[in-house]
Every structure is written in C-alpha cells, then in structure tokens.
C-alpha cells in the first residue's frame, strides 16, 4: 500500500500566445491520501484535476509545493530516479491507451518487458492478471475484437502488472455505458479490497464518487474547495460547486422551478425531510403522521446508500386540518431534519 501527500502543490504554465502571462492550473492544493484508500478528485472541466494527476506521477513537474509518495518527494527527484517511482504506480486511462497492434496478453505483458522481468515470470503474471480481471480466454485476442469494458479490463490488468502500491485512474469509466461502468467500478473496489492498492481516482461524475470512494476532494479553478469523507460531503456540502455535484447523484430537494410546479399541483403543506443513519426512518415518520390523522404523498426525492450509510431527502405533501398538520410537523421536527417548503 502507498501513501500520497500533496503539500501546497501548484502548477503554472506560460499562456500560449501571450508572453509574460501565466495560467494557474493547480493552486496551492494539499491532500493526504492514506494507504489503502480510494480517494476521488472531482471537478468540472478546467478545474485542474487531470493536471493534478499528472503531477502525482511526475509526467509534469509541480511549480511549487511537494508531492510525497511513501515519504519520497518526487518533485526533487531526477528523471532517472523518478522512473523508479513510476514503476510502482499504475495508470488507467479514459481512452484505454492500448497497443492495437498487440494481443491482449502482449498489452498486459508490456510493463513487465520494460522492467526486464524474465519470460516465464511474465507469462505466469499475465495469466494471473487476466484471470483476476475476468479475461481468461482472451489472451490471444486483438484489441479491436474487444468491447469497451473489456478494453478497460485490459488496461486495468496492465496497470497491475508490476504489482503497484498506487493506481491513478483518469476518468476510468467516462467512455463506458452505465452497466459496464458499474462492472469496472466493482473491479476497482476488488483491487482496493483484495490487493490493498491505494487508488487516486479523477472523475467528473459524483455517482462514481458515491459508489466506491472513501474520501473526496472537490476542485474548482485549480483549488481544492472542499474535502472530506464521502458521506460527510454528500450529506452536508459546504460549497455551491459541491452542492451542484451532489444534486446530480442524490435525490434532494426540488429546485425553485420544480418547487413552484409542485406547489401548483399539490395543495397540501410541503415539507422536506432529511434521512440519515442514526435518525428516524420512513416507517417512524409515516406512523407519526398517521397517529395525528395526517395523510401524506411523497412528491420528490429518495433514499440511497452513500459509503455504506443511508442518506437522502424526501419532499412530502401533508394533507389534513391545519392544527393537525402543525402538530405533526412539530413532532417530526423532533425526529429528523425538517424544512417547511410551502
């Protein structure tokens, strides 16, 4: 397992066609990635997340700050010593980056050839990895014969060839359909769980973060604007950027336009309830309403799993006499987080 520490990392470029002007791609970013952790970095296009990934494996040099991989500051290494560090880091790419002129086995074998591993060991390792990623029987296949999901499995097997302690995954599921994406994410989880490999995952999809990450860093404009355990960030986002991301992956409160439509359609009192581990669950809420003679319709939202924990929001229409509804709201407010919407 590999630990990664980014301390005040920055990356500046000279602006093309504008002498004397700099572009700040990464701005004073600090992240601690524990050994054996799946850490996601999420951001919109231009946030600096892919540049950050290239800095971690030394494909680009940081302008400022330090990047420690198992305590070794790679920003201070010569190119020769940096190659040694890279041999312990696996890379998975959005567009697979496979050799189309080579078979599946030869693609997986390539890092071992570069490392000078003897042929018998190479062949045994390739067979082991193809079995691990579910491609036994495809060793002699050519890349163009494979589906997108199979190609990514080849890429993952290749990334594992030299038994790295760290894998860097750059938008590993963005080119795949939803079902295949889930299969690839399950494989990454298996790698982390069974092999103890640390994974730094770059993505713009909050569903990916929710599915497999332990911790997440949200980037905007080159800065890390929010960090934390995935459940904490999902359940209590602190920035507008994070809230926008969370809304794409979780059923939350309706936006203003949707809320106006709900108010026109539903004449009862609208409330939003937050559900999380340790709080009231749906049966308790509905029993509380029934005990007070208040009817209910679920008009928006849902409950889901975030990092193995329950979280979600429901917008409810409460139907009944005014006093009964007010008493019910007061009782619910003692059980869970509640907001009166209308």
UniProtKB/TrEMBL annotation:
<dbReference type="GO" id="GO:0016887">
    <property type="term" value="F:ATP hydrolysis activity"/>
</dbReference>
<dbReference type="Pfam" id="PF09383">
    <property type="entry name" value="NIL"/>
</dbReference>
<dbReference type="InterPro" id="IPR003439">
    <property type="entry name" value="ABC_transporter-like_ATP-bd"/>
</dbReference>
<dbReference type="GO" id="GO:0006865">
    <property type="term" value="P:amino acid transport"/>
</dbReference>
<dbReference type="InterPro" id="IPR045865">
    <property type="entry name" value="ACT-like_dom_sf"/>
</dbReference>
<dbReference type="InterPro" id="IPR050086">
    <property type="entry name" value="MetN_ABC_transporter-like"/>
</dbReference>
<keyword id="KW-0029">Amino-acid transport</keyword>
<dbReference type="InterPro" id="IPR027417">
    <property type="entry name" value="P-loop_NTPase"/>
</dbReference>
<dbReference type="InterPro" id="IPR017871">
    <property type="entry name" value="ABC_transporter-like_CS"/>
</dbReference>
<keyword id="KW-0067">ATP-binding</keyword>
<dbReference type="InterPro" id="IPR041701">
    <property type="entry name" value="MetN_ABC"/>
</dbReference>
<keyword id="KW-1003">Cell membrane</keyword>
<dbReference type="GO" id="GO:0005886">
    <property type="term" value="C:plasma membrane"/>
</dbReference>
<feature type="domain" description="ABC transporter">
    <location>
        <begin position="4"/>
        <end position="246"/>
    </location>
</feature>
<dbReference type="InterPro" id="IPR003593">
    <property type="entry name" value="AAA+_ATPase"/>
</dbReference>
<dbReference type="GO" id="GO:0005524">
    <property type="term" value="F:ATP binding"/>
</dbReference>
<comment type="similarity">
    <text>Belongs to the ABC transporter superfamily.</text>
</comment>
<dbReference type="InterPro" id="IPR018449">
    <property type="entry name" value="NIL_domain"/>
</dbReference>
<keyword id="KW-0813">Transport</keyword>
<comment type="subunit">
    <text>Homodimer. Forms a membrane-associated complex with FtsX.</text>
</comment>
<dbReference type="Pfam" id="PF00005">
    <property type="entry name" value="ABC_tran"/>
</dbReference>
<comment type="function">
    <text>Part of the ABC transporter FtsEX involved in cellular division. Has ATPase activity.</text>
</comment>
<protein>
    <submittedName>
        <fullName>D-methionine transport system ATP-binding protein</fullName>
    </submittedName>
</protein>
<keyword id="KW-1278">Translocase</keyword>
<keyword id="KW-0472">Membrane</keyword>
<keyword id="KW-0547">Nucleotide-binding</keyword>
């Amino acid at each position: 397992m590999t630990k990664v520490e980014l301390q005040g990392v920055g990356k500046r470029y000279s602006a093309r066609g504008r002498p004397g002007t700099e572009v700040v791609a990464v701005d004073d970013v600090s992240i601690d990635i524990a050994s054996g952790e799946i850490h996601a970095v999420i951001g919109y296009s231009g946030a600096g997340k892919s540049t950050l990934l290239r800095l971690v494996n030394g494909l680009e040099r940081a302008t400022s700050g330090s990047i420690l991989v198992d305590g070794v500051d790679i920003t201070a290494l010569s190119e020769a010593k940096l190659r040694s560090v890279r041999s312990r880091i696996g890379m998975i790419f959005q567009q697979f980056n496979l050799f189309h002129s080579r078979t599946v086995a030869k693609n997986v074998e390539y890092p071992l050839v570069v490392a000078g591993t003897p042929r018998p060991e190479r062949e045994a390792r390739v067979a082991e990895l193809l079995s691990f990623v579910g491609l036994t029987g495809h060793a002699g296949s050519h890349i163009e014969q494979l589906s997108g999901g199979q190609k990514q499995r080849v890429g993952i097997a290749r990334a594992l060839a030299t038994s790295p302690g760290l894998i860097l995954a750059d938008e590993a599921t963005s080119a795949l359909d939803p079902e295949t994406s889930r299969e690839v994410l399950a494989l990454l989880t298996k790698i982390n769980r069974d092999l103890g490999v640390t994974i730094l995952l770059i993505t713009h999809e909050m569903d990916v973060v929710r599915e497999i990450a332990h911790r997440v860093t949200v980037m905007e404009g080159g800065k890390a604007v929010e960090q934390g355990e995935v459940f904490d960030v999902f359940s209590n986002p602190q920035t507008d950027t994070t809230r926008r991301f969370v809304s794409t992956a979780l059923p939350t409160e309706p936006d203003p336009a949707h809320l106006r439509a709900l108010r026109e359609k539903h004449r009862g009192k609208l409330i939003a309830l937050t559900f999380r581990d340790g709080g009231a669950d749906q049966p308790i809420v509905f029993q509380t309403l029934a005990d007070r003679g208040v009817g209910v319709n679920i008009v928006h939202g849902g409950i889901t799993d975030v990092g193995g924990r329950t979280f979600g929001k429901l917008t409810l229409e409460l139907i009944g006499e005014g006093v009964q509804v007010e008493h019910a709201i007061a009782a619910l407010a003692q059980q869970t987080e509640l907001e009166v919407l209308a």
